[in-house]
Amino acid sequence: MKLLIVEDEPKTAGFLKKGLEENGFSADIATDGAIAGSLIRQGSYDLIILDAMLPGVDGWTLLKDMRLRRDQTPALFLTARDAVADRVHGLELGADDYLVKPFAFSELLARIRTILRRGPQRQAATLQVADLVIDVQRHRALRAGRLLDLTPKEFLLLALLARRAGDVITRTLIAEQVWDINFDSGANVVDVHMHRLRAKVDDPFPARLIHTVRGIGYVLEDRSGA
């Protein structure tokens, strides 16, 4: 499979290219937004690894332009921009995942393989599970047609669960994705925020969609027909 690395720091770009090629991928490098835009239009890539801050055209604009052209090539942001608002913005633009620098290459590789297994059909701007509809671009979530009043972190947490609906997401992974922290899975920060999210997503409605998998984490799925 062929990947495009959009990264203006030469050592990081070289490290990524070497690591990916050692794991069976072919990889091109673009060091600025203009070069990346040209390669994306000319080439046929299976996935794009994208820095947010680039010379000239930034990563946000590159991805926005891709999605406006209906180019659904999978994209993963790999950037030092670690604010929750940045993560939400990246997902709203149509990114498939968001990993903050510094990072472990093994985790990056695992996320790349997960995205490639899912394929482009999972990259819709609207996510739906039962009567829960999430409009990623507009940062809106509705349940049974009712608008949910979510904080940015709650929306990011719900979007993470929805993008992997049916998959059990560990507390550790949730903490890394939403808060960019590593902690023992017994810590309750995720559970506290999940309780607040459930109060908005599940409690006012007959069927629960967010389920606890004891000792592991959470899963978003419709079990009403089970």
Automatic annotation (TrEMBL):
One of its GO terms (cellular component) is protein-DNA complex. It comes from the Bacteria. Signal peptide: none annotated. The keyword Aminoacyl-tRNA synthetase does not apply. Coiled coil: none annotated. PROSITE patterns: OMPR_PHOB, RESPONSE_REGULATORY. GO terms for biological process: regulation of DNA-templated transcription. Residues 124-222 bind DNA. Keywords: DNA-binding, Phosphoprotein, Transcription, Transcription regulation, Two-component regulatory system. Residues 124-222 form the OmpR/PhoB-type domain. Residues 2-116 form the Response regulatory domain. Pfam families: Response_reg, Trans_reg_C. This is Two-component system, OmpR family, copper resistance phosphate regulon response regulator CusR. It comes from Acidiphilium rubrum.
